[in-house]
Amino acid sequence: MPTGRRAVPRPDPDRPGAFLANGQAAKSGLNRSVLDAGWGVFLAVLRAKAESAGRTVVEVNPANTSRTCAVCGHCHADNRRTQAAFVCVACGHTAHADVNAAINILRVGLARQATEAA
Ligand SMILES: [Zn+2]
Hints:
Blueprint: H1 24-52, E1 85-87, E2 94-96, H2 97-117
Antiparallel strand pairs: 1-2
The structure holds zinc ion.
């Protein structure tokens, strides 16, 4: 197995179209485990910080929050011109895509919080 930070896949001379093992599959599995653990730790720290600050954490389903217009509610993939630019094809509202999505996520979170409190 090659050593170094990035193992370049090398063709297997005995199996046409196949490559010699370079450890990438094992590394990918490890990276997934680290990411899974990282997210859980992040949420635990976030909840603890919020509690100590007298705040609450509300988890929301982010589906379509980046494609929905925060002004008129029109939801369409074409609203995202680029990764950063949000331009509503229905009402013409323009915003940074992350800001538009953050407004939608806040709205969903507040609605969820209101229904849980009722
Ligand atoms: Zn709109």
